[in-house]
Amino acid sequence: MRMIAATCFWFGMQYWAMLVGYSLEGRARFDLLDLPWRVTAPALAVLFPVASLGLWLAVSWGAVLWTMAAIIQILMYVVWPEIFGENHLVPLLNVLVASLYVVFRLALWLEGRRKEEKVRIDSP
Fold first, then answer.
1. What is the dihedral of CA 26, 28, 31, 36, to 10 degrees?
2. Cα(119)–Cα(42) distance, rounded to whole angstroms?
3. Which of UniProt's keywords are assigned here (predicted)?
4. CA 67 to CA 54: how far, in whole Å?
5. Can you tell me the distance from the alpha carbon of 42 to that of 30, in angstroms, rounded to the nearest whole number?
6. What is the pLDDT of residues 70-83, one digit of tens each?
7. What is the maximum span of the chain, computed from C-alpha positions, in angstroms?
8. Which DSSP letter does residue 25 get?
9. Running DSSP on this structure, what letter comes out for residue 79?
10. Most buried among 22, 29, 62, 74, using CB within 10 Å?
11. Cα 80–Cα 24–Cα 49 angle in degrees, nearest 5
12. Which tens digit of pLDDT belongs to each residue from 17-65?
């Protein structure tokens, strides 16, 4: 979860750098963006760092916020590529990371069940 948190923080900083004109040679500053990007980029610039904090602290709302941000990015590049441009890597990485997250959560759940069974067997 901490690796996903670090990645979320990096994504958030990328969006902030884009919005303030630090990256992309200033061509993607907030005042130069068209309306769809003006809506999604600030939302993702806020969602990703907050989700990063939640994932780092291992609280439930971190995964929820990360899921929201990932769904927004997937919708941007898969459903509306004519508006946001084509980018096959971002949706693919979001799906891979989500799959990895589910596998890790399943492993933790199974480990917890195994520990509970040991306690039940040893209990008088």
1. 180
2. 48
3. Membrane, Transmembrane, Transmembrane helix
4. 12
5. 8
6. 999 999 999 999 99
7. 70
8. G
9. I
10. 62
11. 70
12. 999 999 999 999 999 999 999 999 999 999 999 999 999 999 999 999 9
